[in-house]
């Protein structure tokens, strides 16, 4: 399952980001467990507080642009400020995910890691462990995430030096003739740190969430399906799917999933709302102010495509997970030697899904509903601002 290279790389990344105040979680090679400390939690709260305060300030500075017709010279400033706000809001969501309940997050990670090691030691051969998505494939994905997260923080820091400050930055409150070298480098250092912390926090949240999903989703879609399609193979040995062992194995998986979902799901609603509103803003700007945007047209279009593609991928994975759960339960009717107890147990099982219980759940049609919502929302926005 999780290779030693993955564990070592995660350990290094968590150590570096924790010292920089970008996450409160560490990994100990002595105990082979994740942990958190009070100092790390306090240090990690500094960045999101500063980022959130800066976003409130930026929103206040550009809010009047939404109630008056945009001048040609205002389009660039509004778009740059809005793009920076979107990046920072994503970082705040990731900080919230890691800081809302760090002990619970750590306990979920440890349970997942111990469950993976249990399966690897008893039910899965070494060769099949290496071929599992949580092995080498996850390792390379984490390398890519680390490069992007670290590089984005550095690039944003350089851009803050090269690009004229936008209205969302506090230094614009001071007249340019009063800018001293000390003031300017204080401003650059302040925003460079926030951009680096934001990029690293997003990278940590994406990496840990992906590591969990890379283990749990393939296990769910394959090992608990007793009617596996031709061409797909189990990674666990045959005795894993016997009538005496199978119910206990599935209950263990179900408990772990239901424990992890409340920890990870608080990000679902804010992320979908953010991506939805960002898409509407991009569509509105591209359709009504494209001549005044210049090179920002490419940035806005690329950002919208990337975010929509990412979220549709999330919805597709969640929808497939729910469909696999229904398919698994149906396949249990073919359990060899099923007795009265097993049949009652099968009827007691509820399908698993990725959801924020009571508010939001991902089913197969969520992708279509999300796409339809963007199209309808774009037309409604154009009508609201009298652009149609």
UniProtKB/TrEMBL annotation:
**Record flagged with keyword Transmembrane helix:** yes
Transmembrane regions: 46-68, 80-99, 140-163, 190-215, 298-318
UniProt keywords (A-Z) are: Membrane, Transmembrane, Transmembrane helix
Protein name, UniProt field: Odorant receptor
Q: Which organism is it from?
A: Folsomia candida
């Amino acid at each position: 399952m999780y290779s030693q290279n993955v564990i070592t790389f995660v350990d290094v990344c968590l150590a570096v980001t924790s010292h920089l105040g970008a996450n409160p979680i560490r990994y100990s090679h002595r105990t082979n467990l994740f942990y958190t400390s009070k100092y790390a939690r306090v240090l990690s709260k500094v960045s999101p507080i500063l980022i959130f305060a800066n976003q409130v300030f930026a929103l206040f500075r550009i809010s009047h642009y939404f109630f008056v017709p945009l001048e040609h010279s205002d389009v660039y400033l509004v778009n740059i400020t809005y793009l920076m706000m979107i990046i920072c809001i994503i970082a705040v969501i990731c900080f919230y995910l890691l800081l809302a309940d760090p002990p619970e997050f750590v306990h979920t990670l440890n349970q997942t890691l111990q469950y993976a090691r249990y399966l690897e030691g008893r039910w899965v051969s070494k060769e099949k462990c290496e071929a599992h998505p949580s092995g080498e494939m996850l390792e390379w994905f984490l390398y890519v995430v680390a490069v992007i997260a670290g590089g984005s923080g550095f690039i944003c820091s350089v851009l803050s030096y090269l690009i004229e400050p936008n209205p969302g930055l506090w230094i614009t409150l001071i007249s340019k003739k009063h800018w001293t070298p000390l003031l300017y480098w204080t401003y650059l250092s302040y925003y460079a740190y926030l951009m680096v912390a934001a990029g690293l926090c997003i990278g940590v949240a994406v990496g840990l969430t992906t590591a969990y999903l890379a283990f749990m989703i393939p296990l769910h879609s394959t090992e608990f399906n007793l009617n596996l399609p031709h061409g797909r193979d189990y990674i666990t040995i045959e005795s894993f799917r016997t009538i005496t062992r199978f119910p206990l194995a599935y209950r263990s998986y179900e408990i772990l999933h239901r424990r992890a979902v409340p920890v990870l799901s608080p990000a679902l609603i804010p992320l979908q709302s953010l991506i939805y509103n960002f898409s509407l803003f991009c569509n509105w700007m591209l359709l009504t102010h494209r001549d005044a945007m210049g090179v920002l047209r490419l940035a806005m279009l690329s950002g919208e495509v990337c975010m929509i593609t990412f979220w549709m991928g999330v919805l597709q994975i969640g929808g497939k997970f729910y469909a696999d759960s229904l398919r698994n339960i149906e396949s249990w009717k073919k359990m060899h030697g099923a007795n009265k107890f097993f049949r009652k147990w099968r009827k007691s099982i509820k399908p698993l899904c990725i959801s924020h219980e009571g508010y939001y759940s991902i089913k197969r049609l969520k992708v279509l509903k999300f796409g339809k919502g963007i199209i309808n929302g774009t037309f409604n926005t154009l009508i609201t601002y009298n652009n149609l």
